[in-house]
Amino acid sequence: MSTSTPSLRPTLVRGEGVHVWDAEGRRYLDAISGSFAVQLGYGRADLARALTEAASRLAYARPSRFESEESEAYAEEILLAAGPPYTRAIFTTSGSEAVDAALKAAYPYELLLGGAPPPIDPEAGPLEEAMGDSGALLAETIPAAGLGAPVPRPGFLAEIRRACDARDGLWIADEVLTGFGRVGSLFAWKRLTERGEDRGARPDIIAFGKGAGGGYAPIGGVLFAERVASVLDSAPGGAFSHAQTYGGHAIACAVGRHVLAVMREENIESRVREKEKALREALSALSAHPHVLDVRGLGFLWGVLVRKDRRTGEPFPRELRIAERVEGACRDRGLLVFSGSGSHDGNLGDHLLVGPPLVSDTHHFPQIAIGIRESLDAVMRDTSPPGPSRG
C-alpha cells in the first residue's frame, strides 16, 4: 500500500534469478516466488521482451466487444495444455477474480438445469453432508495459505468427484496457488490423479492465476469442461459472459503464452519433480526442531507447522503471532517465506510456507532450511519465559 507516511516494509528495487534486492542494498533469497507467482525467476529478458513486443502491437481491446489475437491464441494454448474435457477459457486479472468468475458461472449453470442452490452450511461435516443439495463445491486442490499445504490423501479427489456427480453438482478446483508447475504438473489435480485411487477424477471448472503470468503480468482465468460450457451456452441470453475492463488483456495474454512456452521448452514440470526430493530432504531436517510438528507438501510447495508442544500438537496462542515473527526473523536473515495460521483448527496453528521459483537450484534448499531453523530459534528465545533468577 502506498502512503504518504514512511513504510516499515523494505522497498524492492531489483530481481535476478531467485534473489531480490531492496533499496538499502540487502539481498534476499525469495523462497516464496514473490507471492507464489514468479515461477520462472526474476530478470528474464525473454518475458520482458514478450511484454514489450505485445504492447507495441496492441495496447488494449475492449473485452466485452472484441477479442485480441493474443487472448485467442492463449485460450487455444492453455486449453491444449489442460487437455480434455476443457473447451472454454475466460481470462481475468487475478486468481481471486477467477474464483469469483467460476462461482458466477456455477449459479446460472444450476438454474439452467432447473435448480437453485441453497447457501452452504458453515459447519462442515462429512463431504456428502456438507455438500447437501449445493450446486457446486469449491476447493483448493492443496490448501496452502490457510492450512499449511496438506496433500489430500489418495482417493479424496475421487470422493469429491463422486459426491458432485451424485448431486449433479460442479467441482470447482481452485488452482490459483498450485497451478503452473508448482507441484510438478500444470495443475495440482493432474499430479494427484496420477494416483490409482484418484485416476480419472477431473474438476468441471478450474480457476487459476498467480504463476500464469510468471510475476511479469497480472492474469488469471477459468477453464470450463465441455459439459459446463454447453449448458451455459444454452442460456436464453446466449453464452456466459464475464467482462472486465482489463480481463484478457492482450499484453497479459502474451506473457501468459510465453510462460506456457517456457514451461514446455525448459521442461519445468519434470525439473520440479527431479528436484523435489532435495527440497523435501532439506526441509525435513526441520522436523527435529522441538517446535516443528510436521513438514509436508509436494513439488515446490511445502508447509512447516510450528507448535508450542510438538508432542501434543498444542498450538501457540494466536496473539503471540509466532509465524509472523518467524517470517520477520527470516527476512532479517535475507530469506523470504510466507507466514500463516489456521493449520490446527482453522484459526490457531502457526505455519510457514515455502515455494521457491521453479528454476531454483538444489544448493538453495539447505539455505532455506537453515534460515528457517535459525529464525525459529531466535523467536523461541524471545518467547520463552525467563529462567529463575540467580543470587
UniProtKB/TrEMBL annotation:
- Keywords attached to this entry: Aminotransferase, Pyridoxal phosphate, Transferase
Q: Which GO terms describe its molecular function?
A: pyridoxal phosphate binding; transaminase activity
Which SUPFAM superfamilies does the UniProt record give?
PLP-dependent transferases
Using the record, list the residue span of the signal peptide; answer none if the entry has no such feature: none
Keyword Transferase in record: yes
Show the Pfam families listed in the entry. Aminotran_3
Any keyword Transferase? yes
What does the similarity note say? Belongs to the class-III pyridoxal-phosphate-dependent aminotransferase family.
Question: What protein does this entry describe?
Answer: Aspartate aminotransferase family protein
Q: What is the lineage of its organism?
A: Bacteria, Candidatus Eiseniibacteriota
